[in-house]
């Protein structure tokens, strides 16, 4: 048995994970008690990590033009093509597009190769879609990209503002820490500022369901309020800040009157005042902000509007007080440290002449890039125009995650050489790769990541990479060497790269740059392997890392003072929204990660929400004669989605929420970013992924069906079967796969096609049993081979729902051998013989407890999450479902929040 301490590959909380392997088999993971980010806890995604380690769907060998090739051949070809493009078109025709999911060492080498040796700064990253606006906010205010605070601040605060953050689902372990802190300190208040009533509102004392995009108004109003109500920290402003007067004047000119602000934000003025008053009266306050702030055409201004009120009230650099941009990806921070964005150089340096000279000297580079490169939207636009001849995409899936996502397909088709490094073979982006490179994945890789509170932790490998998969740093260094820079890319272990990265951070620093790892420049491999989690800077003064920055009132601007940023709020969209349209918001659900290449592998994570959906307000649904569970077409001039409607007053009237996760791999028409345009923040280049105008109307299929099968009927190669259908969404369950279907026409035609395809592909003869009720248009099929059940299909008429199917039970039957005749009958009925309770949709993924079981327990009097936990165990492991348990209890016996 081996036991390895490592770090979770999902969100920016950066939890420590202990991974055990027995006889080569990975065991269920557990949280690392001694890791300061999680103190032993994991959320549901973290707890299911071992379920994602199978080799199903992995890319196992390099390929060129769909033909498998050796690494030597692939790397030679990549290098030769880069050289050819540089010779014929110059370095600006080469581009890299990376990811906050690369390890720091991978990222450092990619950035070094591009900016230092290819000589163009066209290296951007998916962090452009994620925290580019937060970076601009910090740099404008502090002169550096510095997260001032730490996780303890969230526990030590009196008032926590969650602004555009659904931490309950997106940063669950941190959210549980906050929940516990609040339980221990009942005086602590939480305000959620989000157009939607999300799971995070479970612990909210106040929810401000503001009009999307109106955050700058709200915080300008707060600044004005503080000045009018004795809420300023004059000493702090005078000693440590600049540009206060102009900033305040602009806020007063626009937002002196809370009534006006409330109108702009579409909020109740009394609630708004309450929030303002709490901020003024709370000695300590943290504003935790995320994608509702960053992914906006005014994301940078939103960030500075938040920072302005913290500076004005001196609520920064103190325990329990700071403006805190929480990062999404496991290594979004590491990417910022190495300069992964096209407008950064490396180690928190920019493209001014001094920084370029310094980095060039350090890297001994022949010709460093001297001006910023193309940001993601511009980069793909240049690709579409044919200006990019060579594009290398690493660890990201832009065909799903970039705005105007169908245009990304056109752009990729227009690049001479597209290289994609990914662990998985079937991503939507891999379909466009001329050269595919198999990357090692979590559990096989070795390096460091930095979490949201600047904490550097080790990711350590505990499994051998399958097939020919290799770590990203190795792949990139090999190309660097083949381009002629043998010495500069002569790395043998990630520790070599980390030391160099630390040395660059220290190089001619003299206290001028916040990012400083000078105490780590001499780590040998054993020390690197044993590195325990540390918050940067790590230098002579702070050899064990630094918990908070700016506690000394010193900022990294030329004057050493923080800068207020004067702002002008602009009207949010819905003021002039055309009638009949809806504002579409997009974001995350609890159990899926991004484009599902990882969480799609774990049966447990596919049960909470198993289909792509559109969340609609009851009035909007009624207007469109739509009911919960029906299919809805959401469209605009860019495209059309087909989604399952969920109707709820959690959603504001006139708005619709669609998750970002479903790709073409898992659904027919659910890539939400294909409807989103390229509107972006002018300073950060970050796209406005949260606001798009769409229409919605009911879609009426002639038939719908649910399939349970041993093999995945949606896997590539099987697709012709699904391509003719209007709607399908597939996923994994415990013993196989499920697929929900809907279309026009006669379902029997499709059943026939399914039968033919399965006959062709099966190695044994299949025996089909059927049940037809033509009047109700119910057609049911079960296919058996010698070992038992292979496939179950339940077709129904278009208007009927499938609530009578007992999904949990049905999926288990795929593994139970040959059923007797009674069971065969029950299988066609869709539920077990005799009384057996249907779980319903899974709410607690850890213990697989469904909503029907929970509802029954609530009805029996167990009407709070603790009692439910005692009764059913739900919510007692990772706690990610506690907000939903509370919600179900509240729905049975409503309680008021302000
Ligand atoms: N389960 C899960 N967790 C994840 C991820 C995942 O894929 N799945 N991804 C990780 C990543 S990379 C990231 S970046 C984070 C993101 O974490 P979050 O930012 O918390 O997640 P989102 O759901 O994208 O958006 C947050 C909220 O912003 C709200 N919002 C929309 N428009 C506005 C607005 O104008 N103003 C305000 N104030 N709010 C608005 C949305 O309604 C939404 O609830 O999550 C990380 N954690
Ligand atoms: N509509 C809408 N769009 C969004 C967002 C939104 O809120 N709404 N959010 C945006 C945000 S914040 C983000 S961060 C992005 C995320 O979007 P993406 O980065 O496109 O999503 P992922 O699915 O995480 O893609 C990571 C890819 O890298 C692969 N991979 C995993 N590990 C490794 C590795 O070690 N090496 C290599 N080479 N590959 C690996 C995975 O298989 C996967 O294909 O989406 C953005 N897009
Ligand atoms: S909160 Fe969950 S997803 Fe995020 S790092 Fe921790 S275990 Fe992983
Ligand atoms: Mo993100």
Automatic annotation (TrEMBL):
Domain of life: Bacteria
4Fe-4S Mo/W bis-MGD-type domain ranges (all copies): 1-57
InterPro entries the record matches: Asp_de-COase-like_dom_sf (IPR009010), BFD-like_2Fe2S-bd_dom (IPR007419), BFD-like_2Fe2S-bd_dom_sf (IPR041854), CT_Nitrate-R-NapA-like (IPR041957), MoPterin_dinucl-bd_dom (IPR006657), Mopterin_OxRdtase (IPR006656), Mopterin_OxRdtase_4Fe-4S_dom (IPR006963), MopterinOxRdtase_cofactor_BS (IPR027467)
Reported cofactor(s): [4Fe-4S] cluster; Mo-bis(molybdopterin guanine dinucleotide)
Keyword line: 4Fe-4S, Iron, Iron-sulfur, Metal-binding, Molybdenum, Nitrate assimilation, Oxidoreductase
Family, similarity comment: Belongs to the prokaryotic molybdopterin-containing oxidoreductase family. NasA/NapA/NarB subfamily.
PANTHER family xref list: NADPH-FE(3+) OXIDOREDUCTASE SUBUNIT ALPHA (PTHR43105:SF9), RESPIRATORY NITRATE REDUCTASE (PTHR43105)
Descriptive protein name: Molybdopterin-dependent oxidoreductase
Organism, scientific name: Bacterioplanoides pacificum
């Amino acid at each position: 048995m081996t036991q390895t301490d490592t770090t979770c590959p999902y969100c920016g909380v950066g939890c420590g994970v202990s991974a055990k392997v027995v006889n080569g088999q990975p065991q269920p993971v557990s949280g690392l008690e001694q890791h300061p980010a999680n103190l032993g806890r994991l959320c549901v995604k973290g707890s299911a990590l071992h379920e994602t380690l199978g080799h199903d769907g992995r890319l196992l060998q390099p390929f060129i033009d769909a033909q498998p090739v050796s690494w030597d051949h692939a790397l030679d070809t990549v290098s030769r093509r880069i050289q050819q493009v540089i010779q014929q078109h110059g370095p600006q025709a080469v581009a890299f597009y990376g990811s906050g999911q690369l390890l720091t060492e991978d990222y450092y080498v990619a950035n070094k190769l591009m900016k230092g040796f290819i000589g163009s700064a066209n290296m951007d990253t998916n962090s452009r879609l994620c925290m580019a606006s937060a970076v601009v906010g910090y740099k404008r205010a502090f002169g550096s990209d510095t997260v001032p605070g730490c996780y303890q601040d969230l526990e030590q605060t009196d008032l926590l503002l969650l602004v555009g953050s659904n931490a309950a689902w997106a940063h669950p372990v941190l959210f549980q820490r906050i929940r516990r802190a609040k339980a221990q300190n009942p005086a602590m208040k939480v305000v959620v500022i989000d157009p939607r009533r999300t799971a995070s509102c479970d612990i909210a004392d106040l929810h401000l369901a503001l009009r999307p995009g109106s955050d700058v108004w709200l915080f300008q109003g707060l600044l004005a309020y503080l000045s009018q109500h004795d809420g300023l920290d004059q000493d702090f402003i005078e000693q440590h800040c600049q540009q206060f007067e102009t900033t305040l004047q602009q806020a007063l000119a626009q937002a002196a009157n809370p009534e006006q602000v409330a109108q702009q934000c579409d909020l109740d003025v009394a609630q708004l005042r309450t929030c303002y008053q709490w901020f003024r009266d709370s000695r300590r306050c943290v504003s935790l902000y995320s994608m509702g702030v960053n992914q906006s055409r005014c994301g940078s201004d939103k960030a500075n509007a938040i920072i302005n009120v913290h500076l004005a009230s001196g609520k920064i650099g103190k325990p329990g007080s700071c403006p805190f941009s929480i990062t999404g990806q496991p290594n979004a921070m590491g990417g910022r440290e190495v300069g992964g964005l096209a407008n950064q150089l490396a180690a928190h340096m920019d493209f001014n002449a001094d920084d370029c000279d310094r980095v060039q000297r350090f890297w001994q580079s022949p010709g460093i890039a001297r001006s910023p490169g193309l940001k993601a939207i511009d980069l793909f636009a240049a690709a579409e125009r044919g200006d990019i001849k060579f594009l290398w995409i690493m660890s990201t899936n832009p065909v799903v995650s970039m705005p105007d996502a169908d245009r990304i397909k056109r752009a990729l088709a227009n690049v001479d050489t597209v290289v994609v490094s990914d662990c998985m073979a079937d991503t939507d982006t891999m379909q466009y790769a001329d050269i595919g490179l198999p990357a090692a994945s979590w559990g096989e890789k070795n390096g460091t990541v930095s979490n949201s509170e600047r904490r550097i932790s080790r990711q350590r490998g505990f499994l051998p990479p399958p097939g020919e998969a290799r770590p990203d740093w190795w792949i990139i260094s090999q190309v660097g060497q083949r381009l002629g820079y043998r010495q500069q890319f002569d790395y043998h272990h990630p520790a070599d790269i980390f030391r160099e990265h630390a040395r660059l951070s220290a190089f001619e620093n003299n206290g001028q740059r916040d990012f400083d790892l000078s105490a780590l420049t001499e780590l040998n491999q054993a020390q690197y392997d044993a590195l325990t989690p540390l918050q940067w800077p790590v230098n002579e003064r702070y050899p064990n890392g630094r918990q908070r920055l700016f506690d000394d009132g010193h900022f990294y601007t030329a004057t050493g003072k923080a800068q207020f940023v004067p702002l002008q709020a602009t009207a949010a969209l819905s003021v002039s929204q055309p009638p009949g349209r809806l504002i579409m918001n997009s974001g995350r659900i609890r159990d899926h990660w991004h484009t599902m290449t990882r969480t799609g592998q774990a049966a447990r994570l596919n049960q909470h929400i198993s289909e792509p959906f559109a969340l609609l307000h009851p009035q909007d649904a009624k207007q469109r004669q739509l009911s919960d569970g029906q299919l809805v077409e959401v469209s605009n001039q860019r495209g059309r989605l087909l989604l399952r409607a969920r109707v709820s007053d959690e959603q504001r009237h006139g708005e619709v929420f669609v998750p970002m996760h479903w790709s073409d791999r898992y659904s027919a028409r659910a890539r939400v970013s294909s409807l989103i345009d390229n509107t972006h923040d002018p300073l950060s280049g970050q796209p406005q992924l949260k606001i798009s105008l769409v229409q919605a109307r009911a879609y009426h299929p002639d038939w719908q069906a649910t399939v349970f099968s041993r093999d995945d009927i949606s896997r590539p190669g099987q697709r012709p079967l699904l391509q003719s259908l209007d709607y399908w969404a597939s996923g994994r369950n415990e013993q196989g796969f499920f697929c929900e279907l809907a279309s026009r026409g006669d379902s029997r035609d499709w059943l026939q096609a399914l039968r033919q395809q399965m006959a062709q592909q099966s190695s044994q003869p299949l025996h089909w049993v059927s049940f037809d009720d033509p009047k109700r248009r119910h057609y049911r099929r079960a296919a058996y081979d010698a070992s038992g059940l292979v496939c179950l299909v339940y077709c129904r008429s278009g208007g009927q729902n499938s609530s009578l199917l007992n999904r949990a039970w049905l999926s288990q039957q795929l593994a139970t051998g040959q059923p007797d005749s009674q069971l065969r009958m029950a299988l066609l009925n869709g539920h077990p013989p005799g009384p057996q309770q249907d779980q319903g949709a899974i709410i607690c993924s850890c213990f697989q407890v469904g909503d029907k079981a929970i509802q029954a327990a609530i009805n029996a009097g167990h009407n709070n999450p603790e009692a439910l936990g005692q009764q059913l165990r739900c919510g007692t492991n990772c706690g990610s479902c506690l907000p939903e348990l509370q919600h179900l209890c509240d729905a049975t016996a409503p309680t008021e929040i302000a």
